[in-house]
Each structure stands twice: as C-alpha cells, then as structure tokens.
Amino acid sequence: MAHLRAVPDPDDDEPVVDPASAVEHPKHLAEAEPAEEPELDEEPRRYPSTIGGAFYISILVAAGAALVVAARSDWRLGVQILGGAVLVAALLRLILATRDAGMLAVRHRAFDVFLLTSAGVALIVLAGSIPNQPA
Fold this sequence. Notes:
The chain is mostly helical and 135 residues long. The chain has a domain at 51-129. It has helices at 27-30, 51-72, 75-95, 109-129. The mean pLDDT is 79.
C-alpha cells in the first residue's frame, strides 16, 4: 500500500499521495507478469488454416449448389448431390488426421464418419425411392 502522509517532507523525493484518492490494489494484480507479446516475425494465420477447412468449404459449396439444383429444377438430383457431398465429407473425415480435419472433426472420428455416412446414404436412398407424384 502506498505510504500516506498528511504533511509532505521537503527532504523526501517520494510523491505525496492524497488519502482520498488512494486505492488499494490486490497484491496478485500488482505482481502479475505482463502477457507475452507475439513475435513479429511469425507467419500470419492462413484462412482456412487446415486442409480440412478447405475441404469443409468445398463441401459447403457443393451443398449450396445441390440446394440450388433442388429448388430450380430436379429435386431428386439436388438431394442426391447433397447426399454425395455428405458422403465425401465422411470419406474426408475418415482419411484426414484429427488435427488436419478442421471443421469436419466434431466428435470422435468413428462417430463423425458413422453419422455422415448414415445421412448421406439416407438422402440418396430416399431421393431414389420416393415415387413420382401425379401433377
């Protein structure tokens, strides 16, 4: 805590602290070390930073294209393209290491592959098995 005096000593070089403005700081904050600053010569972050991130973006683009196809022309083809994109995501999740998978890695590898494969197969099978409705 700062040294408080009512009358300044002319021989003392310490600044006088007004007791009304003196704030006591917690000891752990006063002794905290400053945070390390990043090195200036580090390579800047790339976006996406993993190969899985690039594949994830390509899967999203394919899914978006599938939705456009489904909305504008043949819904079956659009849903089958979407199912194929999900199956490609399952294959990529199976092949890529967890640190490289990026956003494709959500849970454990086996669980991710199982869910993606199930969803992809279900989309393709359902799109092919739903009968045409009379117009």
